[in-house]
Amino acid sequence: MSASAAQPTRRERRRRRRSRATFTSVLGELLLTAGVLVMLFVAWQMWIGDIIIGAQSNSEGQAVSQEWAELPAPEPPPVIEEDDGDVHYEPPLLEHPENGMKFAQMLIPRFGSDYNVAIAGGTSRPTTLDNGWIGVYDQSVMPGQVGNFSMAGHRTTWGAPLNRMDKLRLDDAIVVEAPEGWYTYRFRTLEYVTPDAVDVLLDVPQVPEAATGERYMTLTACSPLYSLAERIVGYAVFEGFQPRTEGAPDSLDPVDEIAPPSI
Would 163 be classed as within a structural domain? Predict the structure, then answer.
């Protein structure tokens, strides 16, 4: 065979170039498709999934509230008369829940009449928070008790139950519903702290060893949205307890709703 015969012909060289180009184009298309799929997953996880999971969580919460409403109402707690003549019910003491155990629902009229999110023990992601629930810190007191009823929740992903925490207004009702009745707190203020600022969970937030006899609520979540750089902290004070025998409290009356969760 001659040297010239061993060399590829012009047609063969063109065919090889076309084959290489085809392989490159296929690889590029595969990479582009993978990128699109990743973007779709991120969109689902951060936005579309939040809407669907949030709606499902609210629907399940409403079913729980309806179930409690249909049960025989527990006996109301004792009535307390203060020195200034104020008369109110002594808030029933709820048992501190184990991690992942649901025991109450959170209702916030400012977030809409359908907002109804489960509250459960613990603040770990796999056990509590990634179920779309609001979690109670281990050192927290329970609703209506002297001290700090402190909780955490997501602002993005997994239903984002605290997504609109920064939209709360002074005196907005934050209501905890349990089989015994409703514990109403009134929103006071927000602040932003670093993740290591655990003193916001003290019985008197940020005041070590203080004893005021007050009943606080503290809500914590990550800030800004889609970041772990800071924590947004919301504070509220206890207003009162209403037993189920008296029906839902006025604190659940509708108010002007704010925009739906950020997407």
Answer: yes
